[in-house]
Amino acid sequence: MIGFLETVVIGLTTGAVYALIAMGYNVVFASTGVMNFAHGEFYMGGMMIGAFLAVSAGVPMLLALVITVALGALLGVVLERVAVRGLTDKDAGLGASGWVLSTLGFGIVIQAGITLWMGPELRPFPPLAPFDSFTLAGVPITYQRVVVIVAALLVGLLLHLYLERTKVGRALSAVEQDPDAALLRGIPVLRLGVLAFAIGGGLGALSGFLAAPLSAAVSSAGLAFGLKGFIAAAAGGIPSIKGAVIAGFLLGLLEVFGVALLGAGYRQAIVFAALLVVLMVKPAGLFGTGKLRPV
Amino acid sequence: MEPLTYAVRSRWRYLLLIPLVLLVGGPQVVATVTSGLSSLLISPFTHEIEFAANRYEIFNAQLLLIYIVVALGLNLVFQAGMISLGHSAFFLVGAYSVGLLTQHGLSFWLALVVGLVLAAVLGLLLGAPAIRLGLFTLAMVTLGYAIVAQDMVLEWRGLTGGGDGLRGIERPAPFAGLDQYYWLVAVCVVLVYLLTRNWLRSPLGRAGRATADNEVAAGSIRIDVRVVKVRSFVVSAAIAGLAGGLYAPLIGFLSPRAFTVDLAVLFLLMVLLGGGGTAVGPIIGAVVLFRIPLAVEDVTGSAGNVSLLVYGVVLVIAVRLLPQGFMSGWWLLRGWLERRFGGRATDGPAAAEFDGTAFAELVAAGAGQARGPRLRAVDLRKQLGGVKAVDGVGIEVEPGEVHAIIGPNGSGKTTTLNLLSGYVEPDGGTFELDGERVRSGGTVRARHGLGRTFQTPLLFSSMTCLENVMVALDGRTGVPRWAGLLRLPHARAAERRDHERAVAILAAVGIRDVDTRASVLPPGRRRLLEIARLIAFQPRIVLMDEPAAGLTHAEIEHLETMIAAFAAAGIGVVLVEHHVDLVLRLATRVTVLDFGKVLASGTPEEIRNDPKVLEAYLGTSLQANEGDR
Lengths: 295, 629
What we know:
Strand content of chain A: under 5%
Number of helices of chain B: 27
Strand order of the largest sheet of chain B: 6-7-8-3-9-10
CATH topology of the largest domain in chain B: ABC transporter involved in vitamin B12 uptake, BtuC
Low-confidence stretches of chain A: none
Oligomer: heterodimer
């Protein structure tokens, strides 16, 4: 039986990973109105490319991290060009769903491609921090867990400041609210969209790279983690960065404690039930905003 | 695009005889054709074409037909503006119902019905709370259903057999053989196809598409979007349950591993790739997506990741070529053929000019003998953010009166109108029609006959002008909606009448090209279309938000005639307008707002001479206008 505090630490770490993934959805959605259904595969890609670089190719960890994130960003740009641009016509009514299909398809391609390349087995992944632990209130905590939690908080803070405080960030949210008006104001809508996908892709790869040492890398991880990240985003209120971080941590804690109490078979049921309860009370999510004036 | 009414019959409909003949041809024919087609596609790699009618392909053909049933049902959900990734759960419920109940001695037929009903009930329980959510949140929540359903089968080992599965499910008596069972599946496919096609092209489908396009506008013509969504969700869950019930004895063995999230995603992809919202699209999507993995397997000799890779690439390419699915390609081709070889008569009226007399007659016919209700709103208050947008506004409108609300920008005109039409929940104040309190809510007020036009016209952008008007006529004929599903004679007659009336209404406002999609209309026409929809709605009170904005001089004159026609028919009109000239000519009463409060209220003459008004707002513009004359 794991102790209470240990469970809290595991929950927070899991939650940090969910928060990182959730922010990847939000940063893309905030500026393009597109929900990147391939995002889970970016997370998986970060794991696998990281494993390849750090273990098979013997690249130093920090350099491997930089390369992985850069590749994630690059793949994000490719995704935008191949599977999103030109497929988001809002006037087309039902037809505006083209990018739903193509981002899903793009995700399938990433997953199948990486599995073909590296195989379906688990891959070892060295931790970013020394594989030691320190003891806090009698609970041993590995440094990697600290790295993941701090990274989630730091990324959250940076993204929040970026989206709320900088000129580019405010332009991004203007684009999401009304692309036409933003364009008329001289905001380079297209370039900002590409930028958002680059950030989202890099963030996805980063979250995989950070999470991999805790679980080992595997090419089938994309769906499950992409889903959890999305749940965190939805519960937190898309596209709120604050909401994603808070809901991510809550979700991690809830999942770990729920499994401890009810058994692993109920892992998903607990998570989805919680999501449903949150959304029943607040359909726009914890920190989501409804429109002030409907018409 | 595909028409949303069965009043229009196309000669292309005979093309549907091809799949029908195939189905009637029997299991061998279907297996031969489907396997032959996919082997033809991969023949560049394999250098052989194989038409196989072996047991494996006959089994595949039936599995495909069952998937088609699910896709056809799921199409109804998508058409109403929802994405469900949870239909594998309803499919599972149908399958396990039949599997478990038949093993406990219940007859297959009864078990099939139980499975269908269970899936429908589950669809209601799970769908009703979820439909309020946004598009993607709903997709995720429903995906949760799919995952949890699978987990529960694994967890409740005692009931379901858990991971070991459920063995020995037998096919019912006259359909015991694989070849015989085909006929049961085929009949179900045809029935579900007919049901969904009629659904899409009847008032049910129009309400669904209107909801998908614009929920606020749908509510303004008394469509209850929650009912529309729940209805679609429940019916499609029931159809998935039926398909599951057919699936269990086909396979004979149920394992939770068969009902993965991937299956739920596959169902959705079938709908989207084929063309969501079209009658035939899901069938084409299902055939393509079902055969791709099999075909790739034939080429590479192995299943799994290669076929997954091809699958993903095909998806992306297909969407790039035809973002709205395969059927949109067919409609493009068909449009080209018809233009090239002529012969397609337009449904439009002969004349295209605004016709004031016809307009007045249509409005009067819609209003009937009774005069509209008296509107009385007292002490309306609404705080938006930190601003008191509306602060104690009261308004009374008599039947047949034109009551204008004017005021500077930000004085609370639109918010007042939104409070009156129920889109904004007031912080305080009362709203009465003929002395009876009516609670807030756009659809609630629309039910009481409040018609509304919007500052920026809210149209159903993916629907044609004709469909935009027809959808507002629906439900006024008194024909129950299910009659449209069966295309009963009186439903057909009502559909044709509505079609003719819609054309007449469009002609009266001056829209001739009735088959044009609303999204491509220029601004002036958009407003005309919104007014046409308003007539079809048969309002008892009309609320208009800056109807003259963006109109030409001639169009403003027409608008004046239209508003006068509403008033003449005994309908009260509330008019928010910047165009002071128009207001002073038309209005019987004018209320001037400033900073959310009523500055003055009276006849146009009183307002014109009110020093407060002149000072605060009208001053310069009035004098300037008078100077012009």
